[in-house]
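Lecture notes, continued. The same structure-token format from the folding unit now serves as the input rather than the output. Read the line below as a description of shape only.
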């Protein structure tokens, strides 16, 4: 998702889902390995697969990995970007509404 015109903290979101905790972790590991191998950059990972959401922050690109249930939640209503922003704020900074 291209955010260059609407966000100042990153340029792109990559959003995907996995079918199990094990798959979410495997996706996170593979993404980190591929980016490190190609660009020499290691992402900062937040979240745990069992929580249904992992975030890998590479600076200009932020990867969101969701369980199917959470992916459905953020996709409701067709405004995925807005829903993802509020979902992130609720889970990263619980004091913000």
């Amino acid at each position: 998702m291209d955010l260059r015109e609407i966000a100042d903290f990153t340029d792109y979101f990559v959003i995907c889902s996995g079918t199990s905790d094990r798959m979410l972790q495997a996706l996170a590991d593979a993404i980190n390995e591929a980016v490190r191998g190609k660009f020499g950059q290691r992402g900062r990972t937040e979240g745990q697969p069992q929580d249904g959401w992992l975030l890998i922050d590479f600076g200009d690109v932020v990867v969101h990995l969701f369980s199917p249930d959470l992916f459905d939640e953020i996709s409701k209503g067709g405004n995925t970007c807005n829903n993802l922003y509020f979902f992130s704020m609720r889970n990263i900074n619980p004091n913000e509404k």
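Point for the exam: Strands lie at 12-17, 44-46, 53-57, 61-66.
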